[in-house]
Every structure is written in C-alpha cells, then in structure tokens.
Task: structure prediction
Amino acid sequence: MMTRRTLGLLALAALVSLGSVHALDAQRAGRSEPAAPALSPEKLKRLTAELDGYVAAGKLAGGVLWVGRRGQPAYVRAFGQRDVESRAPMREDTMFRIASQTKALVSTATLMLQEEGKLLIGDPVSKYLPEFRETTVAVPKAGGGYDVVKARRPITIRDLLTHTSGVSYGAGPAADRWNAAGITGWYFADRKEPIRETVSRMASLPFDAQPGERWVYGYSTDILGALIEQASGQSLDELLRSKIFVPLGMKDTSFYVPESQRDRLATVYSLGTTGRIERTPDQGGMVSQGAYASGPRRSFSGGAGLVSTARDYARFLQMMLNGGELDGVRLLSRQTVELMTSNHLRGVAFNEGQGFGLGFSVVTDLGARGTPGSVGEYGWGGAYHSTYWVDPKEQMVVVYLTQLIPAGDVDDHAKVRALLYAAIE
Result:
C-alpha cells in the first residue's frame, strides 16, 4: 500500500506535469504565461508624465517611444501631435526622417555582403570605387590656409564603417573646394543625381585627416552605400529592401515616402529663439519639411536618407540583440554581430567612456560616460533629434523618434534614459 507521503509526491508530480502541459499549450497558441513586468508600471508613469510635459511646455510637438525588453514590447507610446497646426495626433505608425540612423542599416548590409563573400571589410575602397585609389588630405597651415598632401595609405571599408576614413561633411580645412563642388551638408533627398555620381566627385577633394588616424564624422557611410551598390550589383534601395526590410517585416522603411502614405510623415519643427517649437519652412533642405515625399527620388543616401517608424527600427534592433536572428529569419551570424558591436578604434580618440564599432557607438566604461546604461550597450541617433540603443545586459532595445532640428538644449533624451533605467526591477 502507498503511504500518505508517496501519494502526496505523486499528486505534486501530476500538478507539475499538468502545469507544463498548460504552458506548452499556451506557447503553441501564441500566448504567454503571466510573468513579472519587464519594467515597473508605477515608475513608467513618471516617464509618461515627462513626455507629456515637453509637449505642454512647447519643447516638442510629439514623438514615439518604443521600448522592448526580454524580446517583448515593454513600453510603447505615441504622444503629442504629428502636425501641430492641423492638430493631427501622433500615432505609433507615424513615419520619421531617421537621418543618421540609416548608417546602422547600411553597415549591416555591408557585413551581410562579407558573409556572402562579396567583399572583405579590410579591402581598399578603390577595389570597388577606383576613383579612391589615390586620395588627398588638407593640412592646415599655421598662418592660415592649408596644404594638400597625399594620403599615407588607402582608405579601407573598415575605415568607412568606423568613421576613421578622414572624410568629414565638407566643413574642414578645404571647405572652399567642397563648396565649389556643390557637396555640403548631409541632406541628399533633393538631389537629382544618383549617389554614385556625388560620391565620385568626393574622391577628388581633400579630406580632413589621414586614414585611420582620427574619428571624423561625415560622408563615410554615403561612400559605403555607393560601394555596396557596386559590390552587390543592386541599387542601395533595392539592396536594403531585399536583404533587411522585407525579411524583417520593416514595411514602412524606405528612402522616400509613398505618395499614398505622405500624411503619415511627421512635420519638422525647430526650437526657436523663444524656447518653444516653430514649424520649419516647407522647402527642400534638411531644416525644413524636406523632399522625402515630393522630391526627385534619385539619391539614396546611405548616411542619412531613410524614413522609418519606431516599430520597424525596433525590429531591426531586436534582430541585433538576438545575435542576428528574428522570428526564425537569420540575417547575420552571432560572430558578425559581436564584431560589429565591439570597439574598433584602437586608441583613436572618441567620446569619453565610448568606442566605435562597425556602425554603432559602444559603451566601454560606464562611469566615464556618466549616464545610466551598461558596458557593451551600443547605439546612435539622427539629426532630427532621434536616438536609439541596445543594452544586451538588460535585454533591452530603445527607439525614440521626434522631428526637431535644431533641438537647442531640450533634455528629453537624458530624461528618457534616466527614467527607463529607474524602471528596471
């Protein structure tokens, strides 16, 4: 006969087994068992109040904040207005000009081509763009002006990925020559020539530093975009669409907004002299409503050209956090993701507590940076006052999109970061 203790153990085993079956059934049905919240709901109320406060104070028209943790959405909120004058509300699917957030996507496509054997990041740029075989550098003279000298070595693809090519946005010592060539600023949406032609003219102009010697922010990723067009045999828009956007379900990411969707594009504002937002003019340049909906649709800027949504960009970041895979679709190997998110600067000066990988800044010393986060965190942002980051330690992705240029001293980025990390329990 079984003892009471034996019967009790058998009953407990049955309950555990039954619980496992229920959990498996829930998983198969696409449901998840109740779990502790990824972020404290009570503490997130502070974040909600702060975001609303920026709108009420006239510092922001609105924005979208998408936070994922442990592979699930943890805080997704559209706040304020997409267009203040028409009182159109901000929505989660509002489209934003993501500017330099384009760089991470182009860098990812480049590493995908390396995995296919179509290039190596140690290759010289001239292997694909012959006009870069012999480049020059402008060296400032003590009494004013500059000398033009030959580059000491060829620029490599890795230099482009890490922004150590020496190529700026044309505002360096030889700005006069860049201006004369008609290449200034990072905005390309209003250009009628393909990016390959623009990049070809860059090759003949003096750059700001010798390859590999300084971190210089500029046209490196635009050059990279033209390069991977050559390496792949596809235009940059088709390359990104086929390799990244379609596989990841990024249905609202493109270089130009479809005519049928133009009313989803957020309006651009500037923080004016009064300290409150002002609608920027409806012109073609970057500090305006731009040409993303009505422009010539000819130039695909790998450095700053894409339009996207918070949801789309969060899917891309989740793929990176997962080690190159999302929803059963693998874009990169885990080793390639590790390579991209490691510091490659090797002594080249950058921001305190940070290095730079292949398309992302990387946190190397949390105390030196001085803001909440984790060592190993990687991310970047865009000129229209957007930011994003991935924190592998906390299993968190953050996408924060607004349309404010210039943004003055508004401190919403720092507040978002501080309040999100305060909500981790």
In short: The domain at 41-105+236-422 is CATH 3.40.710.10 (Beta-lactamase). The chain has two domains: 41-105+236-422, 121-232.
